[in-house]
Amino acid sequence: MGPWQEVPENSLLLATRAGTRVVPLPPPADAVSGLIQAATRHTTAAPARSRSAAASADPSTATPAPRFTLDQRLPADYLTDSLRRDVVAGLSATPKILPPKWFYDARGSDLFEQITELAEYYPTRVEERILARIAPEIAGATGAATVFEPGSGSSRKTRLLLDALTARGTLRCYAPLDVSPSALEQAGAALIRDYPALTVAATVADFEADLTVPHDAPSPRLITFLGSTIGNLDPTERREFYDMLRADLGPADAFLLGADLVKDRDVLVRAYDDSQGVTAEFNKNVLHVINRELGADFDPDSFAHVALWNEEEERMEMHLRSRYAQTVKVRALDLSVDFAADELMRTEISCKFRRDGLTAELSDCGLDVRNWWTDEAEQFAVLLAVPSR
After folding, report:
1. Which of 95, 107, 212, 285 lies most in the core, judged by the most C-beta atoms within 10 Å?
2. What mean pLDDT is predicted for residues 195-220?
């Protein structure tokens, strides 16, 4: 039996087979709400105080810095304007193309969460198992004080890294970046509740155009890009992404990437064309989004979901196939679009990678792969890269 231990107020003594530890209890829900309200009022445009004024201020009357801040870098009409540009360009192209980011309204996000639970869809499940195994090793290799995550969403898998870095005692800041303020606020509320010593510096931005880490985020920094989102970018887009990333990396920083690997064609096709039809509904959701936001008259039932393996490009592709010749009107754009019978409209690419090729393209952009982890079946990889010397 170990020695007696005094437990501070608002704490819990947790006993497990691994030993005992004191865990601070989260603040009540109304306290979290107050933190979020204070944070969303924070703006980077606030006038700076001089160093002498700060030094002479009465500490007893100073307002503590909020643990959650939200930096809005997008204009109010950014998403609407982007959707308009993408729909005009994509429906006027040959072949027609719609970017996959427009799947993800509230309904689309819910459908994707359902997809991650399907037996056929392995990437999320396998990546989480890898991260659970290697998170302590990543924490030891990086000693990160800040975790910066572009396209963070709910930040679910990232908690494995936050736990490992917290246990190591280096983590001070989590800096998520996403186009959705509400997703950032919800994730931020949960994180400051569950990690009492953590500061969350959220940024509303589009990672395809802005990968700047918050200027006051402490170093060293770990930039994470999980979920094989990198596969949604073609080679030119990936090069632009790596170049933006490399420009913002300091010598002590590191980049953690999740990437889906080339494998048996049937395994890949089943992952993007499940037996329950959830992926088909997810694919068609882009039509619902355009109907709602731009006054289009797409009939989703007049399109069929198609998942194809592109052998030459080594990527999965999702398409919508017009079941018959039809014309679609997009009223907000004063646009009329003709579809031929069986015409395909591409809605997503998901590139799959080989170790040599992915390592080479990172090296070409000034990033050296130091660690490469995978599962036993080598379906998915997580790799850690650092700036080239």
Report:
1. 285
2. 92
Q: Is the peptide bond before 95 cis (omega within 30 degrees of 0)?
A: yes
- Half-sphere exposure (Cβ direction) of 48: Cα atoms closer than 13 Å: 4
User: Among candidates 135, 204, 203, which has minimal Cα distance to 170?
Assistant: 135
- Which token pair is 181? 């303020």
Structure-token pair, residue 56: 């002479």
| Helix, coil or strand: residue 56 | helix
Rounded CA separation 72/191 (Å): 19
Q: The whole model's pTM is what?
A: 0.83
Structure tokens at 368: 């050296």
List of residues 6+ apart from 146 with CB closer than 8 A: 171, 172, 173, 174, 175, 213, 217, 218, 219, 220, 221, 222
Q: Locate the domains of the chain by residue range.
A: 87-118+275-351, 125-205+217-263+354-387
Rounded Cα–Cα distance for residues 94 and 90 (Å) = 8
Residues 125-205+217-263+354-387, CATH architecture: 3-Layer(aba) Sandwich (3.40)
pLDDT in tens, 252-269: 999 999 999 999 999 999
Q: For 327-364, what is each residue's pLDDT tens digit? A: 999 999 999 999 999 999 999 999 999 999 999 999 99
Q: What angle do CA 360, 269, 314 make, to 5 degrees?
A: 25
Q: Which residues contact 273 (CB under 8 A, 6 or more apart)?
A: 279, 280, 305, 307
